[in-house]
Every structure is written in C-alpha cells, then in structure tokens.
Fold this sequence. Notes:
The structure holds three protein chains of three kinds.
Chain A: E1 3-7, H1 11-23, E2 27-31, H2 34-43, E3 48-52, H3 60-69, E4 78-82, H4 87-96, E5 100-103, H5 108-119
Helix pairs in contact in A: 1-5, 2-3
Chain B: H1 7-31, H2 39-58, H3 62-79, H4 87-109, H5 115-129, H6 137-150, E1 155-163, H7 174-182, E2 185-193, E3 209-217, H8 221-227, E4 235-241, H9 252-264, H10 294-320, H11 328-351, E5 353-355, H12 357-374, E6 378-383, E7 388-390, H13 391-412, H14 416-421, E8 428-437, E9 440-447, H15 454-463, H16 475-480, H17 503-512, E10 516-522, E11 526-534, E12 539-547, E13 550-555, E14 559-565, E15 570-572, E16 578-582, E17 585-591, H18 592-595, E18 613-620, E19 623-629, E20 631-639, E21 653-658, E22 664-668, H19 670-687
Parallel strand pairs in B: 6-8, 13-22, 17-19
Antiparallel strand pairs in B: 1-3, 1-4, 2-3, 5-7, 8-9, 9-11, 10-11, 12-13, 12-20, 14-18, 15-16, 16-17, 18-19, 21-22
Helix pairs in contact in B: 1-2, 1-4, 1-12, 2-3, 3-4, 3-5, 4-5, 6-9, 10-11, 12-13, 13-17
Chain C: E1 3-6, E2 20-26, E3 29-34, E4 38-42, E5 57-63, E6 66-72, H1 73-76, E7 89-96, E8 101-108, E9 110-116, E10 138-144, E11 147-152, H2 154-157, H3 160-164
Parallel strand pairs in C: 3-11, 6-8
Antiparallel strand pairs in C: 1-4, 2-3, 2-9, 4-7, 5-6, 7-8, 10-11
Amino acid sequence: xxxxxxxxxxxxxxxxxxxxxxxxxxxxxxxxxxxxxxxxxxxxxxxxxxxxxxxxxxxxxxxxxxxxxxxxxxxxxxxxxxxxxxxxxxxxxxxxxxxxxxxxxxxxxxxxxxxxxxxx
Amino acid sequence: xxxxxxxxxxxxxxxxxxxxxxxxxxxxxxxxxxxxxxxxxxxxxxxxxxxxxxxxxxxxxxxxxxxxxxxxxxxxxxxxxxxxxxxxxxxxxxxxxxxxxxxxxxxxxxxxxxxxxxxxxxxxxxxxxxxxxxxxxxxxxxxxxxxxxxxxxxxxxxxxxxxxxxxxxxxxxxxxxxxxxxxxxxxxxxxxxxxxxxxxxxxxxxxxxxxxxxxxxxxxxxxxxxxxxxxxxxxxxxxxxxxxxxxxxxxxxxxxxxxxxxxxxxxxxxxxxxxxxxxxxxxxxxxxxxxxxxxxxxxxxxxxxxxxxxxxxxxxxxxxxxxxxxxxxxxxxxxxxxxxxxxxxxxxxxxxxxxxxxxxxxxxxxxxxxxxxxxxxxxxxxxxxxxxxxxxxxxxxxxxxxxxxxxxxxxxxxxxxxxxxxxxxxxxxxxxxxxxxxxxxxxxxxxxxxxxxxxxxxxxxxxxxxxxxxxxxxxxxxxxxxxxxxxxxxxxxxxxxxxxxxxxxxxxxxxxxxxxxxxxxxxxxxxxxxxxxxxxxxxxxxxxxxxxxxxxxxxxxxxxxxxxxxxxxxxxxxxxxxxxxxxxxxxxxxxxxxxxxxxxxxxxxxxxxxxxxxxxxxxxxxxxxxxxxxxxxxxxxxxxxxxxxxxxxxxxxxxxxxxxxxxxxxxxxxxxxxxxxxxxxxxxxxxx
Amino acid sequence: xxxxxxxxxxxxxxxxxxxxxxxxxxxxxxxxxxxxxxxxxxxxxxxxxxxxxxxxxxxxxxxxxxxxxxxxxxxxxxxxxxxxxxxxxxxxxxxxxxxxxxxxxxxxxxxxxxxxxxxxxxxxxxxxxxxxxxxxxxxxxxxxxxxxxxxxxxxxxxxxxxxxxxxxxxxxxxx
Lengths: 120, 688, 175
C-alpha cells in the first residue's frame, strides 16, 4: 500500500493508472499537468510519482527536475510514462533525476509489477 | 494477476478525449499555412497525435495507433524542420484527421469502418514518408515477447555492479535491483567498498559501494540487463555467463519474468521514429474544469426548480402574514431567500452553458473544403466565440447553422472573377458572429456576396404557388419567402446545399427553440441572416392567463400585444377559418376553449360593454396568431416540466409547470399553434 | 394535499412482498394491484385538465414535483360515474410499459385491504370478461373470504397506446 501520484494530461490514461493501482491496494492521486503535479507534491508526501512526458503547462522532464528540488522528493522513485522509446528521452529523464520509465503501451499487470519493483 | 475493472468506462473517456484531440488537431492544421510554420502550433498538433497514438496502443486499438504512428512521424518531421508545411501535407493530414475520427466513431458505436478511405489515406502518408507501411508498437511488443520466451536455459551468471556515487539521487535503490534478480533465480550478493573513498569527505547521500553478484537462473543476458535498465548510465556493469551452453529448460517462472521485461522493454520499431521535444504547447487544456454527466446537471436543475417553487409558495404565505412587526423578520428572511434562490438558479443554469466556439470552430474546415470544391475564395471571420449558449440549444442549432453557411458559400459568395468584375475584392468574406442582445443570444451569418435577387425569388414563389400573382409584397417580405415551405429554387439544388434541409426547416428548427430568424439582404452587396435565441430552454418568462377554469402560460417573448376585440371585427372565411383584422393585416384567430376541447364551467369573460373579448396576439417564425383568453394574470418565471415523462406529448402544449400554489399549469406551444393555424389556412386556400 | 399512506422503495415492504396485493373498490367490485407497484395513495386534490385528452384522463397533478396524469378508472372501464365521495382516493402506481416507465394516478372508489396471494391462488380469467373489464387488462382472479378479486395488469392498462385510446381527433383549428 503506497501513496502514488500520477501525472498525465490524458484523462483516460489517468483513469487507467489510478483504477489499476487502486485495485492493487494503493492510494492514487492524479494531476493533469506538471504544474498541478508539482503543487500536489509540495503539499503531500508520495512514495512513487508516475508522470507523462508531453503535457501542457509543464512537461514531465521539467516536473522531474522540480520534484528533485523538493526536500520530500529527493529520493522518491519517479517513473516517466511515455511512448518515447528513443534512448535520448530516457537519458534526458535520467539527467533530470528520474528513477526509471514505463513504456507505453502498458497494461495494468505490467504497471503493477513495475510499481512493486520500485517499492521493493 | 487479473484486474477486472470497468474498461468500457475508461474507453469512453479515451474516445471523448480523442475526439476533442482530433478537433484540436483539425483546427490547428487549419491554422497552418505554407511558409508559416508556427512551432507552437505544430507542437500542439504533434502532442495531440502522440497522445492519441499512445492511448490507442494502451487500450489495444491497434488500427488507430498504427495509423496515427505515420501521422505522428510526419508531424515530428515538421517539428524538427525536416519537412516544410505544404498545401499537400495539410490536405493529407486533414484527411488523416477524418480517418481517425471515423475510426473512433466506428469503435465507439461498434460500427463498420470505411477501410478504403483509411487505406487510401495511409498510402498518401506512406508516400509522403517515402517508406513502407509502419509497424505498430503493439506488434513489436508481441514479437519481443515471443523472442524472449523462446530461449530460456539454466545458466550461472557473474555480475559486477559498481554504481556511480549519485545513484540514490534518481531514487534508485540497488536493493530493488537485487530483489528483482532474485525473482529470476538463486542470487548471492557480495558487497565491496569503493577503492577511492575519502572518509573525511563522505557525503551520506552518495553511494560508495559496489557489488559482485552470482545468479543461477534460466534467463539470458538481456533479462539481467533489464533489471539494470534504469541505472545502466549510472554504473559500471559487467555481465558474464559461466556456462553459455546450458540446456534449455523452460519453466514458467522464467517465462513470466521475461514477459515482464518485454513490457518494460522499448518497442524496437519505434526507436528511430519520434524525436522527443521539451516544449509542449497549451492547447485544449480545460484548466480547473471537471466532466459531469449531463443527467446529474439536469437533476440539479430540477431540484433548483423545485426550490424556486417552494420559495414562491413561502412568499405567498409571507404576504398573507400581515404588516405587524412580529412578521417583519419572516418577511426579511423570505426576501433574502428569494434573492438566494434566484442566484442559485442562475448559477445552476450556467452549468449547462457552453461557449459557441465549439460549434463555430468546425466551420473553418467546412468553409475551407466547400470553397475549394467550388473554386471560390473565402475568408471566414469569427467573432463572439466566447458567447455561451445552453447545451441543448447549441446542439440543435448545429445543423441549421451548417445549412446557412453552405448557402452563403454556394449561392452568396461569387466566383473570384465575378467578384473582380463587380469591383469587389477577389476574396469573399463570410462572417459568423454571436453576441448577447437583451435577454437573447444573437447569431449572425453574414456574407459580402451577391445578395438575394428579389425579382427572381418573387417569380419563383409565384411559379410554385407560394404566393399569388396579385399579392403586393415589399422587398423584405419577398426576401422572407425563402423560408416558405415549398420554396426551393432549381438553382439552389447543388451537390453542396441541395442535400439536407431547406430554409423552411431551418426556420422551423429555430422557432422550435423559441427563436426567430430574419434576413437582411441587398442585391450585389450581400446577405445577413440574424438568428435570435432564448438563453435557456429550462426556464421561461411566462405570462399567466386564465382560459375557462384553468391557468395557461404563454412565453412572454412570444406575445406581441393584447387587444380588446369588438365582436364585429372577427371575420369568418369561406373555408371556415377565422381571421381578425389587426391594423393592415388579417391574422388567424384561435379560440383556446375550442382548440383544446375544454369543458369550462366559467362563462366567457367579456369586455367592452359586455360583448368584446380579450385576445393575445402571439408571433412565431414571423407569423402572428390571435388567441382568445378570458383574463390576463401575473407574469412570472416558470420551470418547464415535461408532460411526456409520465404521459405523452400533447399537441399545442410545450409542457407544464408547477405554480406557487402547488397546482399544475399548462404551457402553450406558440410555435406549434402558429404552424397549425398556417397549415389550416393553407388548406382553406387550397380548397377555395 | 393529504398523503395517507406512502411507500418509498425501502420502506417496510421488501422482497417477500412480491405476492402482496393492494385491493380497492370500484363499482362494487374488488380489484387488486401488486403492492410493489404502488407508490402511494393520495387524497383528492386539484387536477389540471390536459387539452384534447381522452375523457378518462382527468388531467395532471403535482406529486412531489412530478407531473403525473390522473386516470378515472370508472370512466376508463365505461362504468357509471359517481361524484367523488369521502373515500375516493388516487392510487399512484408505477407502470412499466414497453416504451418507458411511467407514474400514473388512478382514481378509485376506496382502498380496501392488503392480501398475500400465492400464484396457486390466482386463476386465469375465464373467456368471458368480468364486470366489463376487458380480459386484456386482467392478470387473473382470486378468491379471499368468498369474495372475488380481479387482479389488474396495469402495465397493459396504462401503456402508451392505451393512454391514447379514444383520444378525440383535434377539432378543426378554427375559432
């Protein structure tokens, strides 16, 4: 059971992520862009953050950079949710401080496994 | 593990967001011009396409994700300046937008998909890309799956893992990686301290350890690498197999973990496709808004309606309470209650209001397509897109507006050479505007085209029996003939506006919404169609009247005037219809007692030395009708309730409402009665 | 508006009540409707007539904010009409017709009893209709204490088509 923040501008992906993880017993809050996600993370403690890359207002890379600047998020696992598989995207994510990535398309089972993996 | 949840609901959200996305793509594409590649706009279009592709792949709609992949690649090339914006490209991408829209609709409604147009469009995209058909992300995942599952074997692996000092700062914990390796087989871990640690300057947040691991597992190197996937840029990693020829002995555990890895592994075919970009553009962001089912809103509105009725009931009691001081607190309270109820009602109504921009924006595409088909040059000018309209009104206005715009393009705006010859600019202007006027919403469709040819219209109307040859008509009256049923000029029938509805239907749809349409046209200069609509359909400013023993309600906006009619001014025509001479015009007259078959105990109320009667003159659709009533009562706002819900629709009634005393009163359907009177008159004149 | 009896779905009645019938008197005979269909019993109140409706549709009434048509059952069954007396009530029922569910009020001479009737106690209607009520609208007959009960099929009786039944064609649209 973990507190998870899911950031994605697509309502359907948000719903899929939160429905999947809630079913698996986690508590999920979601935000529709990086700015909103950052604001939530400033106010709450999360065990894992999952974020999309391409979003309006603030993208996932910038969000990751900003999260790492927060005291509460310095070591929090941050997973980038993206269809991009090009290595430069992963590299940019890593440079920004992301823990890892989940490549879309993903299915509920694989998502739960990844979360289990980062939660140990 | 199986996860059962309501995927349908999530799919519906996906369809809805994708439809919105498609609209954003379309209007974005329409905003692109050759030689003017606004990077912000291109980025927005790309992001939407990317999002649709990703969602479609996630939800298993492979046809859409495959198709969108090519679109995304084209957009990515645009974005990275590897391709220039051209008319051709926009055309193909607009076609692709239609295809995706069609695919979404087909999926949503479980309907047949027009494969031909998709294939055709795919070919065009491929031609632009200059490549073979793209493979889908989903396919390659499946491929990877298979490959991975095919070659398991029991092996012993030596792994040296020496992470960079900063590994914790990305939230990675070596212990997690070890647990994952442990899930693959038997794992032994030996830690060693890094060689160059300076104990004076140790940072507790850094990692100064390295590990040597021994793994016995039925997996290959890729599976082990996958466990280190997230940290491979942050460490020295050596993986070595002691017995590479180990016999293949698949066990289910290994296959399962290979599957997991496959899901995490990037689909290979994509690796050289889309280049990421950092700057996302804000396009369709609905900041601070939530989606609410319309039924919930209507339930809320209903409740608020009840509250308004209860409030007016209380107000009546309050009035009866007298003037004494003891009741002044009650009366003050009731006044505040009234104000709050009114405000609550207005806020609740606001929820149903949508900006007209959603309706207007589709015209960009329509105008572009039709004008290019006709070889005309047209600039579309929109104004007042923020004007808000009731959702139902907005939906019902959609078709009539399309018709009016098509008419303007088809018959209004001339060919470029004709325009030049007439001394007009080559490019015609079509203006769509919306604004508030009084308590109404006005929508205008205006063009600077040829205008109406009054002479020709009159001639056609006579030919078609819409008017008689002898009838003297003003120019404005002639213009209004185009709204008459049966008036459709042969010239008016074309590929474009010939299909669909006629102007009479447009006018009727608008009248049914309690609105009206007017036309102002000047030959050679252009036409302007002006539609006036009520703000909402749920509440009506009502005029209460008494007919016999009952209270009936007219929409205040439909009433032109009330007149006291001396008996000798009512004329019965040969066909049986009855008319009243109102100044210059004869208007049809209806006696509600008879029209509604009322059994009234109360006698007709008379005025003017006991033989005159009270008539309410109403107007709809530009036509007037006189209705006899016994008495005018109050004016008040009423909440419209459906008779159909528990009974059935009733001719002549628009619904019912509950009055302050708790009784039900019927609301008169003025457009319906006016129409019936018109039909009856037409029948009479045919008979005569 | 008086409400002598009201039954919201989660009141005292539950699944075991599927076999219970509310009976009422009409023209000297006793009729029954399934109690689960009964939404309430109203005293007489102002009814607003509906233009051009069949004469058995007395009009509509405001029932807790809903506009509900009121049917005079005597008129519906072509029985002699009598003035409303002290026992005259409106039984509000939920009708499940093919097109949609409706709430309808029916005026009866008076409410009688609630009986539990097992299916075994209900007989099909003989070929000849009872008391002028067409067999189409009768679900079956039962006998309690030597009395005959006529169990109505309100879904058929008040279907959309039946409500339209006998509706006079609108008069010539003239004054």
